[in-house]
Amino acid sequence: MAYKAGAPIVPISIVNSHKVMPTGWMFSMKPARGTARVVIHEPVESKGKTEEELAEAVRESMLKGLPEDQQPL
Fold it and tell me: How many angstroms separate the CA atoms of 41 and 24, rounded?
C-alpha cells in the first residue's frame, strides 16, 4: 500500500519477544517473564524504488535493530 501511494514505510523491530512469549505460549495461562524492546526505525522512502528495492531496504533497517544473537545466519 505504501509503495503504491508513494508513502514512506516506518519499520519496527521487536527484540527478545521469544524470551517474553516462548513457542507455544500464545494463549498461556502463565504470566510472561522477561523484557521485550520495540525499536522504531527511521522511515524508508518508497519514491524512486522498485518494490524489491523497497522490501530490501526495509528488511535491512529492521535487521539493524536486532541484537547480534538474533541476526539471521
Answer: 29
Kindly state the cell numbers that stand for 9: 514505510
Contact call for residues 54 and 46 (beta carbons, < 8 A): yes
Give the largest CA-CA distance in the chain. Answer: 48
Full DSSP string of 27-57: T-SSPP-S--EEEEPPPB--TT--HHHHHHH
Question: For the CA atoms of 58, 60, 64, 65, what is the dihedral angle to 10 degrees?
Answer: 30
Enumerate the β-bridge partners of residue 14: 38
Would the pTM count as exceeding 0.85?
no
DSSP class of residue 67 equals -
> What distances in angstroms separate CA 7 from CA 10, 43, 48, 60, 73, one per listed residue?
10, 10, 11, 18, 31
Tens digit of each residue's pLDDT (9 = 90 or more) over 44-56: 999 999 999 999 9
